[in-house]
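Sorry, explain these tokens?

***
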Amino acid sequence: MPHFELTETPLLSRAAQDRAEELRSDTDALRAGWPEALLLRVNPRGQVRVNDGELVLEPASTLGAEPARDAVFLGLHGTRHVWAVRVPAMTGELGDLRMLGHRLDESSAGLLTTAVALLNWHDHAGFSAIDGAATEPTMSGWSRISSSTGHEEFPRTDPAVICLVHDGGDRVLLARQPVWPPRMFSVLAGFVETGESLETCVAREIREEVGLDVHDVRYLGSQPWPFPRSVMIGFAAVGDPAAPLEFADGEIAEAHWFTREEVRAALDAGDWTSRSDAELLLPGSISIARVMIESWAGTD
């Protein structure tokens, strides 16, 4: 059958932290919780301190006697408030979301995903998109206010589609970007343009990247992807392996149709970090691409 569903929830979509939105504007409650609050420090590369594969959460009070102006409120860890802050550098054992994602529990993964995405937005939102005036963080880091007009801006998330193209039978189309080493392949993806539906974006991106027309576009699932602040929206679509592939826009270096047997062998070989000499290497478990490929490969 040409249709399949995801066999498991993508890794970063399993976040289970309590965001406690009602506290973001409650200055008194946040101040009261600050002495016992926890803090996640994140450097410009999205790295955090780790200990035996776990996030290191420090006392928030090390920043001062009350919530710091540049800290962002992430929610609750048990009954304790959790904040994150950007720091220029850190020492000790460090890890980022790509490295740690598969080792973190659902709460920790949610905290780190939210922290990285939110801090990435603040890094580029210092001036209003409306009037160019400097902006100030408000709502515990969940919005920014123009110092000139008072216009409020909120964290931005860029939607991107990611699509597994198959032939309705035993073959799947996988591609490699020019910056990727040989043998590393994945499914196709691209950002949604203004005024465009998700399904239209799927068809356009695949046509632009590999010159292939697809049909029967079906939604699979989604996953936050804070690199820098996106959400990946997964689809499957059907294409014709007999149609020629063209790489007109330069985003794809090569693409090939692979059989289910070849994909299963590649999944058994590991992922992009593997030292295997397999002819095909696939994305790691943190990416929704991995779940999509595994789910398609697992169908009969």
Summary: The first strand starts at residue 38 and ends at 42. Helices lie at 27-33, 97-100, 106-123, 198-210, 260-269, 288-297. The chain has a mean pLDDT of 95. The chain has three domains: 12-123, 127-156, 157-297.
